[in-house]
Amino acid sequence: MSFVFKAIIVFLVVSLAAVLVYRVVPVPITPLMVIRSAESLITTDKKFVGIKKDWVPLTEIHKSMQRAVIKAEDYRFYEHSGFDWEAIEKAMKYNKTHKRKKGASTISQQTAKNVFLWPSRSWLRKGLEAYFTVLIELFWPKDRILEVYLNVIELGEGVYGVEAASQKFFKKKAAQLNNSQASLLAAVLPNPRRFKVDRPSTYVLRRQAKIMSRKAPPAEIQSPVARPEIIAPPPVEPVEDIDLKLDSDPTEIEGEGNSDNSEATS
């Protein structure tokens, strides 16, 4: 048995084991958290960035927060099986005629990337993201995917998850967030390192207003609907993801954020 074949088998076994473990066990740390802290240590003009996170179950995250991220990031979250083909098609058409590229990562894809992978726009990373997306869609219920996503997304410098962000920016628990506060947190997700919850720009405030005013999706925060067969996505050029759902102005977004999404979630 060749070394490469053995390595592939080991990877498949370890990755499947990790997915099964994280179906029930809180994710203690992610590669992005480690990378951000390490980067701050070697950057002389920055102070050390620690890791502030507080894991809470989905039942302790206010429904307004759950709705806000779905309305902002993945409107068909409870309908698709990991890949939003309609959004992918729109992104591909848009990218043919625009210099600044758009992507269409779902919450499932962002969760797969944030939990198991590293920030990068390479083909390898995108391929592994698709692989882990298929795994979590197969073995995790939708509510678990949403729960993990809300607990690991980057929402500020060294701040991960909505509970830690809620405590830091609003001095309250995630279970106590109102619609305005939840929508503001969701509004910075395209790039939480550039867009600030505590110092929102005009663009962030516009996104917040759009999120607040948008109708909740039909399957909003319910038991997941029956999901179609999962198939691998077609090859899509790895690009920076800009939120398609809210018709974001691409001229106002730079860098990678949680919406391909926290490269910060590609």
Structure overview:
The structure is a single chain. With 266 residues, this protein is mostly helical. The chain has one domain: Penicillin binding protein transpeptidase fold (Orthogonal Bundle), CATH 1.10.3810. 47% of the residues lie in helices and 3% in strands. α5 packs across α7 and α9 (179-187) crosses α10 (202-213). The two termini are 34 Å apart. The relative contact order is 0.19.
What order do the helices and strands follow? HHEHHHHHEEHHH
Domain count: the total is: 1
Q: Give the DSSP E fraction (strand runs of 2 or more residues).
A: under 5%
Shape: globular
Radius of gyration: 18 Å
Distance between the termini: 34 Å
| Fourth CATH level, the homologous superfamily | Biosynthetic peptidoglycan transglycosylase-like
Largest beta-sheet details: 3 strands, mixed
CATH class (first level) name: Mainly Alpha
Going across the biggest sheet, name each strand in turn.
1-3-2
The total beta strand count reads 3
Please work out how many helical segments DSSP would assign.
10
Task: Indicate the percent of residues in helices.
Answer: 40-55%
Tell me what the CATH architecture is: Orthogonal Bundle
What class do helices, strands and sheet pairing give?
mainly alpha
Query: Mean of the pLDDT scores?
Result: 83
- What oligomeric state do these chains adopt? single chain
- Report the uncertain regions: 221-244, 247-257, 261-266
Topology-level CATH name: Penicillin binding protein transpeptidase fold
